[in-house]
Amino acid sequence: MNSPLHLYKAEFFKALGHPLRLAILDSLRDGPLSVTKLQEMVQVDQSILSQHLAKLRSFKFVTARREKTTIFYHVHDTDVYIFLDLAKNIYGRQLQLSQDILNQLNTTEHI
Amino acid sequence: MNSPLHLYKAEFFKALGHPLRLAILDSLRDGPLSVTKLQEMVQVDQSILSQHLAKLRSFKFVTARREKTTIFYHVHDTDVYIFLDLAKNIYGRQLQLSQDILNQLNTTEHI
DNA sequence: TTATTATATTAGAATGTTCAAATATAGTAA
DNA sequence: TTACTATATTTGAACATTCTAATATAATAA
After folding, report:
1. Of A55, A60, A87, A51, nearest in space to B15 by CA
2. Alpha-carbon distance B87 to B93, whole Å?
3. Residues B14 and B41 in one domain
4. Chain segment B14-70, per-residue pLDDT in tens
5. Dist. CA B105–CA B111, nearest whole Å
6. What is the pLDDT of residues B80-97, one digit of tens each?
7. Residues B23 and B38 placed together within one structural domain of the fold
8. What range(s) does the HTH arsR-type domain occupy (chains A, B) (predicted)?
9. What pLDDT is attached to residue B102?
């Protein structure tokens, strides 16, 4: 157990396991954005945004480029979107199943 | 920020963000296994294995079926492997990039 | 019924992650 | 140089996850 590969892979998934970081990646779908612009979009404190950008950077999900005093972020490998969208398929089915069970419960009289 | 979708998606990734849970899913690639057999493969305490199986179950990554006194686990939706393997592509490139930088540093004399 | 085997759950301690606030840095312009 | 704007880093508190150990449950067999 705890092969280096599983350890690294787990870190990779953890890096995606935060709502704000997912929101950041979604905000960058249509191209690079400055931190200020990102902040407007995701509506969090500057410091918090910066901390989460650091995490995304550390796994190379995003890359930063400076232009004068502004820093622009862009996704490093846009295939990550294929990956994120595929995730939707998987948990979509999981949710569907839960929903079906839920519906079944709701439409059953004797509860 | 914090759309329910991002919240759920983050939980989904967190559920995959543990080396043991990834090892469990890998162990189940070739078909269902009993908890005892799984335990032999991943080499952890019974209680710990059970707790992680509970988490995988709660996100429907795995499903349990009882046969007499033995419980067999199997992956609920085998597409999860397509997903996990795609992850490898993404972080593989990330790692490659780091490796390249590292190599460059190592082969540069003036350091 | 009791004992046994297989697995799950619970409670608290240990550890890790995130947040909030303050401070630091880096570039530019005056 | 000083002041300003944009962004990053640090620190400790708040919160969440994981581990350990003990206990619970469920099925079976004796």
Report:
1. A87
2. 10
3. yes
4. 999 999 999 999 999 999 999 999 999 999 999 999 999 999 999 999 999 999 889
5. 8
6. 999 999 999 898 888 776
7. yes
8. 1-95
9. 59
A84 and A71 belong to one structural domain: no
Domain count, chain A: 2
User: Is the same domain home to B14 and B68?
Assistant: yes
Do residues A53 and A93 share a domain? Answer: no
Rounded to whole angstroms, how far apart are CA atoms B77 and B100? 36
Tell me the residue length of chain A. 111
How far apart, in Å, are the Cα atoms of B11 and each of A80, B6, B8, B15, B43? 18, 9, 5, 6, 26
Q: Which of residues 20-79 of A touch strand C (CB under 7 A)?
A: 20, 45, 47-48, 51-52, 55, 66, 68-69
Closest CA to B92 of A110, A54, A77, A107: A77
Domain extent at residue A109: 78-111
Q: Is B72 helix (H, G, I), strand (E, B) or coil?
A: strand
